[in-house]
């Protein structure tokens, strides 16, 4: 009996369960440290500490090398036995700089930045909490390395390394968000994501097609949402947060709440957010060209121009949004992990402000131009199996269904006909990924993917006087777009300070579209594309010492023609209409980049990356014909005919530079600078500046941090883009750009000075306040259709439990 009791105490007692739960603390303050990452390549395991600095490391039992790291702390490598000998308490020493950071999702597989040849950044949750971004697009802008364009307040289109829109890729919890109607013009799908429910955000710069397939030419933006947390004891783990926020520039009223509750095998997380934005006020000091002193309202059956009391108010830009998320996790044993996630986002209608600025014959071109409610829903199932077999050490299977709904509603000034075009996309995807360690120096990652998009599109027009509806042209044909791929990535580490990575992907894509010739007599009734693309990458990372990092990478990427490229009908600019082209093929990008990072005396860190991208067979808008005619009547006016064609070569080159200085007393200074030049071939062989290569831009920050306070003074800025430096297609857009002394369009330089403060009242209660654009500048980020906020006072209250 005595032996049985001893055996029970050894194997099953609560003490032993607790003894395998570590506590990670700051070596000076003894405060628990959350989000500390523990990795063991031997055990193929990866875990993170919770907000109490705790994590169950029973899966690491027997490991000789466990890497323990967190941004801002020195890396520790300990064996399981050493951790056990210290009573499962680990103390980390603060470190000014770290050249290695765990990447959770930007490369689909968990890796260190020190092993990745491409440039990858992570936007820390603390920086997001301090900056209080209103949307997920603003969240990306917090990095200082991603440029954000806006044509309406309900929007935000990132630009990365001279590329944008459907040449960039979004992922949510490892699921591809891009769909078959992602367009070449500015898009606003990223606002469907909830910044409050985002646990980590990573950006991979440059080609990502080997891992993610089509569209990943300029970069990949990876969002990891809140994860359910299992309890490491018999008690239920409950945690969460509540956030409220007010901003003065648009009278923002926001509330968010999330809660996590978990047991040993089951865990849940529930999240809900709601935003309410009024019309946005722009600054009082800047170009008069950005002022719009009127708006259109309908009185007694007639459109009338109404003069605004305050010309700084951009009317209409108001909108509301709500987001919901529910996740469930089930971990029956140490080998299996099942996670299901549900996401839902819906906006109200919101005005397309730049279109409402257009003037025709001295009057507003439109009385209405707005997007209908933008809806996004995703169901995804993620199954992970960890077990050492001949074929893999870890298997991940992702199955997802997304549904996208959007619409465009417009009516010309003094016209009784309102045009409504609505789109719906059902996107299905399945991924299976494997990781296999081959000895001590090599790891192979491989997998396969299947994607199917069904596109529904319809058009109708409403007579606002009679209320009668009639059919009208749809924006897209009824279509299906599918993609099938296999891919592999190989990592070889001949030594601790040198890594080589290479990858290949073969992607086959299919498109079927049926055109309705009721309204336009196209010389075709269907489009069928059946083609493939082979892409690859090869790169290396070398660490001459602990304070040096050198990386070089060559990669190719592609973008397969989608339904938006092949089949849409829309007014691209005043007096022009784009018609379908069923004869498109994929465009290819070839990218070279090299980066160097160096830490000097644990005081100064510099980071420099240079890159060059060549885009061949680029899909661009070109003049065309329909049934032998170079112009047709579209939306009531004579319009020249254009189509998307594989008709250009484009190239982008530039540098990304960053500097950070750590001073004593919790003060640090950092700066990011981005310079890019883009050129695109025109029909006549001449070159035009690329539309999506932003002017030089950057951010400089001065921070002070103490135990309870975090204060930041910072400046955002952009260089001027002269008229001759604008893309040829942009030069006539007087509704977007300012006018110089010669009456030509240009994008003026601008800067803002800003202040943010975070104060921790109690362990779980904090106050964030800020003043953005202190000098009340009136400015427009390059290519934007509306001005940015003027002086903006922000206050938010955050409670964690």
Automatic annotation (TrEMBL):
Domain of life: Bacteria
Membrane-topology annotation of the record: Multi-pass membrane protein
One GO cellular component term: cell outer membrane
Alphabetical keyword list: Cell outer membrane, Membrane, Receptor, Signal, TonB box, Transmembrane, Transmembrane beta strand, Transport
Domain TonB-dependent receptor-like beta-barrel: 276-774
TonB-dependent receptor plug domain segment(s): 115-220
Stored InterPro entries: Beta-barrel_TonB (IPR000531), Beta-barrel_TonB_sf (IPR036942), Plug_dom (IPR012910), Plug_dom_sf (IPR037066), TonB-dep_rcpt-like (IPR039426), TonB_rcpt_CS (IPR010917)
Pfam families, alphabetized: Plug, TonB_dep_Rec_b-barrel
CDD domains: ligand_gated_channel
Location(s), subcellular: Cell outer membrane
Gene Ontology molecular function: siderophore uptake transmembrane transporter activity
Keyword Membrane: yes
GO biological process, one term: siderophore transmembrane transport
Family statement drawn from the similarity comment of this UniProt entry: Belongs to the TonB-dependent receptor family.
Record's protein name: TonB-dependent receptor
Organism in which the protein naturally occurs: Marivirga salinarum
Lineage: Bacteria, Pseudomonadati, Bacteroidota, Cytophagia, Cytophagales
